[in-house]
Amino acid sequence: MKYKRILLKLSGESLMGDKQYGIDNNRVQQYAQDIKTVIDAGIEVAIVVGGGNIFRGLSAEKSGMERAQADYMGMLATVINCMALQSAMEDIGIDTRLQSAIKMEQICEPYIRRRAMAHLQSGKVVIFGAGTGNPYFTTDTAASLRAIEIKADVVMKGTRVDGIYTADPEKDPTATRYDEISFQEVYDKGLNVMDMTAITLCKENKLPIVVFDMNKEGNFIKLAQGEQVGTVVR
Ligand SMILES: Nc1ncnc2c1ncn2[C@@H]1O[C@H](COP(=O)(O)OP(=O)(O)OP(=O)(O)O)[C@@H](O)[C@H]1O
Ligand SMILES: O=c1ccn([C@@H]2O[C@H](COP(=O)(O)O)[C@@H](O)[C@H]2O)c(=O)[nH]1
Fold it and tell me: Are 101 and 132 in contact (CB under 8 A)?
């Protein structure tokens, strides 16, 4: 098996499906099924979920809200997404634990690194909510940070584009996709598929990143088993 432990980052926006806002249950159910195939193959999976489908701190700041306050709202939004994904996974028999970087005793465990690793070793999927717990960060950075902390082999960013392009493919139809790219090239070319703090953490800790289309059923297991899917950054 190529990977023993994977950190899967799911963007909030991809949970929207075709909706303009919020959560598309069909999409969440598809993700849960795809995650199950990877768990059933004996691979450990931890997940960080974004919140962009509900609330983004930066956008709220532009409308006049104080940034830190807005960012805490964004972190709470990620927990809502995590709970939706947790429900969908439990419905199909996956054992899960949700850990939040901001304490919410009635809802989930607090983030405790060693406990998270023990859950993973016993076959549970651990979902990390509330990002890093700090404003001015993103869930991409939370994904890199948690992946390093729990000694994952890779960060897989499952999103709605099928890899990293020479420019944002949603804005530039002439953009072409890389199969592989170095951390340095991501900086040099200013590619915005993940924020630079997240990229730097992975670079400094020699942790590869794969960006792939999570909306295509079966992609996650292919990737987990070592097939070439999406773009690898290393
Ligand atoms: N060079 C590039 N290659 C690929 N995608 C790019 C590139 N530049 C910008 N993007 C954009 O990055 C987005 C991927 O980020 P994603 O939607 O997963 O956002 P996020 O900020 O991680 O999550 P959230 O929606 O939770 O805020 C794609 O939708 C794509 O349009
Ligand atoms: O560590 C973190 C993670 C996230 N935030 C805030 O949450 C929203 C949603 O996260 P995305 O990564 O954009 O999906 C983000 O816009 C921040 O406002 C944070 O403050 N700290």
Answer: yes
